[in-house]
Specification:
Helix content: 40-55%
CATH topology of the largest domain: Rossmann fold
Keywords: Methyltransferase, S-adenosyl-L-methionine, Transferase
Protein name: O-methyltransferas-like protein
Largest sheet: 8 strands, mixed
Radius of gyration: 23 Å
Number of helices: 19
Bound molecules: S-adenosylmethionine
Structural class: alpha/beta
CATH superfamily of the largest domain: Vaccinia Virus protein VP39
GO molecular function, one term: O-methyltransferase activity
InterPro entries: COMT-like, COMT_C, SAM-dependent_MTases_sf, WH-like_DNA-bd_sf, WH_DNA-bd_sf
CATH architecture of the largest domain: 3-Layer(aba) Sandwich
Shape: globular
Length: 386
């Protein structure tokens, strides 16, 4: 029996080592289906009812810095060492570690001895940890408010901008953005979460010939405006990819976001506070780039944002929307869950190609092309002109 399991495990590892990203992800999904096919009804119930506890246990592990300690340690750590390092009550810590080990979050190679597992290493990066904190603190309570919210609204697809499941969960009339402005530690986690979300895929600049498209662009004119660009990772990535590009690179976001990078002085990037619901101050840029902005907004709000940019565009300008383009069927779990995360936070949505085309047409823009650059996440750049 063990021999058979070992053979299967080896074969799966060989498959997962493939360069074919699509095959690797299909393997993960197939293994999940296999696991579910083996479960009894009671096991299925046990797995589902404790999903919230997994989130809580990860949060506690982060609060006590258990995962980093195990990753940083050159040897498996003794239970007593972890008690000293965390300051937690030994009986309580034992219970937490047992739970984490039983789910593979950490490994327990011998009695009272713990070490990092693959999951521990995967979640040791600070940006990933910020994402986990944001999800435990903000997203999970918001998800849990969704059933009652939908029932209260008679299961209509919500499109209001001032009554979201987030508003209900946090008893606030503020939008998530305004609320984050008042909660800087959650804001900081959110910003780092944005870095983490796409950290394992190459960004769109590896697939788009923006250098060719902007050949001969005058140095004094704006080349690339990252609208709602967060803390500037894409401006920096653009400069790193093509240091020779001429033209101004501008990072725009809300004041409370860009103020955090002003001191850092991103090389070759102008930093500008700008609310995209107001007129776009940078006129005639070659590229207006918006990554993961439209999916935070209802169609009506997206049209407002797009029209503000359209008014600043000239004949050579393009809008580049870096977003998920959902397939019409068999949508993968990591896309469906992002879609519902947009619903609970903003009453917003991910979109299919048909929905993107219709949205851009309503904003008076023409689709120039759609480049899907990761099939796994269906990340795509939709280019549009006036
Ligand atoms: C999902 S994040 C995407 C950030 C960045 N584009 C990226 O891909 O990492 C959305 C961004 O929109 C910004 N934002 C929200 N409302 C805004 C507004 N009215 N004007 C400008 N930026 C805004 C947020 O501060 C946040 O940085």
């Amino acid at each position: 029996m063990d021999a058979a399991l070992n053979t299967i495990t080896e074969e799966v590892h060989k498959l997962a080592k493939t360069d074919d990203e699509f095959l690797r992800r299909r393997t993960i999904d197939k293994l999940r289906d296999l696991q579910y096919a083996l479960e009894t009804p009671e096991e299925t119930m046990q797995r589902l009812i404790y999903l919230g506890l997994t989130t809580a246990s990860v949060r506690i592990g982060l609060d006590l810095n258990i995962f980093n300690k195990l990753v940083d340690s050159e040897h498996p750590m003794k239970f007593d060492e972890l008690c000293d390092a965390t300051g937690a009550d030994p009986i309580l810590l034992g219970r937490i570690l047992r739970h984490q080990s039983s789910l593979g979050m950490i490994d327990e190679p011998a009695q009272d001895t713990f070490t990092a597992s693959q999951t521990t290493r995967n979640i040791s990066h600070p940006d990933i940890q910020a994402g986990l904190k944001f999800c435990a603190d903000i997203l999970t309570p918001t998800f849990l408010s969704l059933p009652a919210f939908l029932s209260t609204h008679s299961y209509q697809n919500p499109t209001s901008t001032d009554s979201t499941p987030f508003n209900t969960a946090f008893s606030t009339p503020l939008s998530l953005w305004s609320w984050l402005a008042e909660h800087p530690s959650h804001r900081a986690n959110f910003n780092r979460f944005m870095y983490a979300q796409r950290s394992s895929v190459k960004d769109c600049f590896s697939y788009l010939p923006l250098d060719k498209e902007s050949e001969g662009w005058p140095a004094e004119k704006p080349l690339f405006v990252d609208v709602g660009g967060g803390t500037g990772q894409q401006c920096v990535a653009l400069r790193e990819k093509w240091p020779e590009l001429k033209g101004r690179v501008v990072l725009q976001d809300l004041e409370e976001v860009v103020e955090s990078v002003r001191g850092e002085g991103l090389e070759g990037v102008e930093i500008m506070a700008h609310d995209f619901f107001t007129a776009q101050p940078v006129k005639g840029a070659k590229f207006y780039y918006l990554r993961a902005i439209m999916h935070n907004h209802t169609d009506e709000k997206c049209i407002e944002i797009l029209k503000n940019i359209k008014d600043a565009m000239d004949e050579e300008s393009e809008i580049l929307l870096d977003e998920i383009v959902m397939p019409d069927t068999k949508v993968e779990w990591f896309v469906t869950q992002t879609d519902l995360a947009m619903l609970v936070q903003f009453n917003a949505t991910e979109r299919t190609e048909g929905q993107w085309r219709s949205l851009l047409e309503r904003a008076g823009l023409k689709v120039k092309g759609i480049t899907t650059y990761t099939h796994a996440f269906r990340l795509s750049v939709i280019a549009a002109t006036k």
